[in-house]
Amino acid sequence: MASPSFGFLSKVRKRITPSPSDARAEQAMVRRLLREIKKTKGPHLSALLCGSMARNTHLRGDRDLDIFVFYSPKLKRESFEKNGLQLAHKIFGKHFHEEVYSEHPYVRGNIDGFDVEIVPTYKVEKASDKLSAVDRTPFHAQYMRKHLSKQQCGEVRLLKQFLKGIQAYGADVKNQGVPGYLVEILILRYGTFLKAVQAMSQWKNNTVIDLEEQHSTPQDALKQFNNTHLLVIDPTDMSRNVAAALSFNQFARMIMAARQFLAAPKERFFFAHESPSMTLPQIKSHLAMQELMGIHFPFPKETVEDVMWGQLLRVSKKMQHGLEAKDYCIRRHFFWTDGQEHAFIIFDVENPSLQSSKLRIGPSVFDATHVEHFLRAHPKPLSGPRIEEGKVVLEIPRAFPEFKGALKEEAQLTAQTEKSPLREALHQFALLDEGQIIALAKKNKSFQHALSAFLKGKESFL
């Protein structure tokens, strides 16, 4: 049997590498921003481009500029935040920009087609001296500039695009995948894209990568990080796991995708995320064989999109647990938001209708105290009580024999327990049946794409 051919990788590499004209435009914008920051009055000390563009590992079309502005560690936190925001607002001027709140506020926006973030940071001697989480980021840039070769930058791009293609790239809450810095570490560890994918295909649970060997043994490192599935020690800060945002499911997907790619390498692995949506007739055909119902509510005011994805994850799981407690079998669910106006949670339910009565199996007859409590709690059963297999059994009316009523109840309960502004948004929920879901897909192409992926339920690499 012939060995798989990887000759197409040069074609992929060319497609994802910024062109010389792209590079010139990027460098010109960076010089412009750094010059404007330098001439702006304030207590800031200097500014530095960080992120993948600073390390020449960014993909073509990714026009993200992460500008870090340094302040003295002696500057009080209030002044640090105030001056950081004031400076950023001056730099953006009339260009679109907004304040974003992480551990401390920063400003992001768009200037002449570039997505720019201006982030205040304390100028510390080493990453472990950080006063805020972002203080270590400039050390990442410094470390990679020192260790990554020009050739390896191309290997990083291939691995990034591979992970992007299988939808495992990005450490944000929505993706729960791999950050760019981790991709660079993997190339430093394994040398090339192919060697990294080969290693990935053989990863086991509790894999440890410690480039600088800052921990005595992998076992010692795992103990300190509570035995996580993938532990990648930050070369600049031994107390940090660079893979902390990677979910277990994404970890498993990466391993499986690597195996499939090595067995049958194809260019499609790198661009599978660009697959077309299902047509509306195809969606209708799928829904004819499934039972979908969900809720739609407005995007909460003054909420950052990345935060909202985390809230949707948590709320959808909470609602699923509540529905399952009402005896509904939820096969799958998905959630989606456009980050501006709409949010959805949709459930695929196995049994949309239940019997009007519910069987309650009580304690053993030998447990007299609990039997007494059980009977007192159900004074007027529909059927029973009786003894079956040595236990007290009876039937009671079911509060929500239809899934629609159960879903409405769970949405109302969830809204009551959430905090503002999500609470106000959830209070405005509307139930969605399959007809309304199809209508929304017809109006919103992004929702149609997300719904298509959910209905297909198929990994692009399988």
UniProtKB/TrEMBL annotation:
Catalyzes the addition and repair of the essential 3'-terminal CCA sequence in tRNAs without using a nucleic acid template. Adds these three nucleotides in the order of C, C, and A to the tRNA nucleotide-73, using CTP and ATP as substrates and producing inorganic pyrophosphate. tRNA 3'-terminal CCA addition is required both for tRNA processing and repair. Also involved in tRNA surveillance by mediating tandem CCA addition to generate a CCACCA at the 3' terminus of unstable tRNAs. While stable tRNAs receive only 3'-terminal CCA, unstable tRNAs are marked with CCACCA and rapidly degraded. The keyword ATP-binding applies. Homodimer. Belongs to the tRNA nucleotidyltransferase/poly(A) polymerase family. Archaeal CCA-adding enzyme subfamily. One of its GO terms (biological process) is tRNA 3'-terminal CCA addition. Its EC number is 2.7.7.72. This is CCA-adding enzyme. A single active site specifically recognizes both ATP and CTP and is responsible for their addition. ATP binds at S52, R55, H140, K160, Y169. Residues 293-417 form the CCA-adding enzyme C-terminal domain. Its cofactor is Mg(2+). One of its GO terms (molecular function) is CCA tRNA nucleotidyltransferase activity. Residues 155-271 form the tRNA nucleotidyltransferase substrate binding domain. Residues 34-140 form the Polymerase nucleotidyl transferase domain. CDD domains: NT_2-5OAS_ClassI-CCAase. Mg(2+) binds at D64, D66, E117. Coiled coil: none annotated.
